[in-house]
Every structure is written in C-alpha cells, then in structure tokens.
C-alpha cells in the first residue's frame, strides 16, 4: 500500500472513532429520559395519589409510543430518505422539550401518559438513527461498535437511578436534568455527527423490505433472536427496582438502592455489551448471543431463589443479570445490518426495533399482574420463554449467514 493510502486509512480510522464516540454520547444523554419516570415512580405515587400499577402506564406509554414511531419510520423509510444525524438531532430536541413540559406543568396521570406516549414516538428518531449511523462508520469491528452502542443505551437508560442520590431535590429536578442531557444529545448530533462511508443512499425507497426480509435466513434469524431478547429485557429493566425493594423489604427508593440499580443495570449492562461485542469479534455473533440469552434466561428461573437474600447476594446476582440481559442487543443489530439488503438497512433496523418493542408492552404489563397474584418473588420466571425461543431461532440458522 502506498504512503498516501496508509495516511488515508489512518485518517478514516480516526474519523470513525471520533464519530462513533459522538454517537455513543448521544445515546447516553438522549436515552436518559427513557426511565426518568420509572426512577421517580415512588415520588409520583405519593404526589399524585396513584397506585404502582397505574404508574406503570408511564412506562407502557413510552414503549407503545416508541413502537408506533418505529413502525412509522419503517413504513415510510424515513431513515433511508433523510440524513440520520438530522433525524436524531431534531428528535432528541423534541424529546427534551416534551420532558421539560412533563417536569414543569404535568400533575395528573392521564396528561402524563399522553406526554410519555409522544416522547416514545420521538425516541424512534433517537435510537434507530444511531444504529444506522454506527453501521455507516464500522465494518470490520461492527460487533464491537454495536456492543459499545448497546452499552451506552444501557448507561443512559439507568442514569436517572444514579440521580436518586440527590434525594433532597424534587422529582421535577431529576426529570428536568434528563431533559437537559437529551437536548445536549440533539445539539451534538446536528452540529458534529455525519454518516460514514459504509452506507448506501438508495435510488428508490423499498419499504416492503420491512416484511420481505423475513424470507431471508440471516435477517430472519437476527430478528427472531432479537424478539426473544426483547421479551425479557424491558420487563427486567422496568421491574427489577421494585423486585429489589420488596426483596429488601424497603418502602421507597433510597439513594443507596438507586446507586445499586445504576451499578447493576447501567454499569453491568455496559460491561456486558462491551464484553459481548469483543467476544463476538473472536468467537462469532451467534455463539455469544446464544450464551447471553442462556445466562439471562437462567437468571429468570433462579430469581425466586435469591429473593430475600442479603444485599450483597442480590447485588451480585442483579449485576450478572443486568450484564447478560443486554449483552446480545447490539449483536442482533449488527447481524441485521450486515445480512440485510444494504440499500434498506434503515428500514430493516426500524422494523426490527418496532416489533421488538411491541413485545415489551406485553411483558411490562404482565409482570406486575403475576406479582400481584404470586408476589414479586415469582414475577420473573415466565420471562425465560423469550430467551428459549430466541435460542431456538438462532440455532436454526447457519453461522455463515452472517459476516
């Protein structure tokens, strides 16, 4: 290779690292809003005079909104029509505005649910564009890139729990802080993020690929594995804090418990995603994804046995669960982005996330119902259905379907 070619290659690698870092920061800051209402749920229950089951509709509304938004993005081919960094930036700014309204002006559950639904719709313009942008800047190390992105999604989602250390501040300040962070994500995307060289601009938008891709072995397996993963993921993320509260016989989210949730779900998830991405580069995406599904599924089954254990035991168990339950998320996105028609990657990723998040609506709602009948000790074992079905889908496809 000529000296000029070596310099160009080094420059491209440096630009890719810089862009991937910026994309990662947008997910940490932008997705901090996602679980902001869940993190302050005890305060909302107290201030608004609602039950925990009623407050669960705040999380449900976000999931439903995201699914609706992702379906719209998929059916319109928005990520293949417009510049993804612009979609991400504008969407993040709208999420920040809506979250500010939630913090300053909302005091009743119906209005709060409506606002969270709109926030969920706009989130469909924050996360899927980041997936496409990541794919456009990564080729050889795509598993690692998507692993880091998944870790940043986890850190951002768990960040509100860390803010619980400021328990002397009203819940409005915590939610407002996440709105400010999300606005920062929008500004970063609009000013400094651009698409990379590994992306194609289609001459014509083919939205039918959203369902045609299921006829292809690689995309079908990546999607079915992802659906099994999502069946478990958000139910765990939403209700693990309540599981820990009951297991420790506490009545409210304390600063110590809030930090513990952040460590287990946030830092644990980040470690799991990065480790999963690194191992996938060496052992293959399928093997690592199946391993992660196996471990998280086992945690579902074992959760009743650790209920009521010591704080240290619960912390270790939840850390392992938090790491394994998200470790494969970026891998499924990497699989799909590699095996799907490169002229419709945005549409494929949007369809994958849309269907996956529709499944989360079911499990988020079912979990507290089961807990109401059998107690929180037995709220999670049924979630093993997702990992089992995901593993069956993955083992039904040959490894060479992916690159």
Write structural notes for this entry.
With 403 residues, this protein is mainly α. It has 18 helices and no strands. The longest helix is centred in the middle third of the chain and has 31 residues, at 217-247. It is globular and about 55 Å long. The two termini are 25 Å apart. The relative contact order is 0.16.
- Residue share in β-strands: under 5%
What percent of residues adopt helix (DSSP H or I)? Answer: over 70%
The CATH topology annotation reads as: Growth Hormone, Chain: A
Which value, in Å, is the CA radius of gyration? Answer: 20 Å
Summarize the structure.
The protein is an all-alpha fold and 403 residues long. It has helices at residues 3-30, 36-39, 41-48, 52-76, 78-81, 84-105, 109-123, 127-137, 142-162, 171-192, 209-212, 217-247, 255-283, 285-306, 311-324, 329-339, 345-374, 385-395.
Helices and strands, with pairings:
Layout: H1 3-30, H2 36-39, H3 41-48, H4 52-76, H5 78-81, H6 84-105, H7 109-123, H8 127-137, H9 142-162, H10 171-192, H11 209-212, H12 217-247, H13 255-283, H14 285-306, H15 311-324, H16 329-339, H17 345-374, H18 385-395
Helix pairs in contact: 1-8, 1-9, 1-10, 4-7, 4-17, 6-7, 6-8, 6-10, 8-9, 8-17, 9-13, 9-16, 12-13, 12-16, 12-17, 12-18, 13-14, 13-15, 14-15, 14-16, 14-18
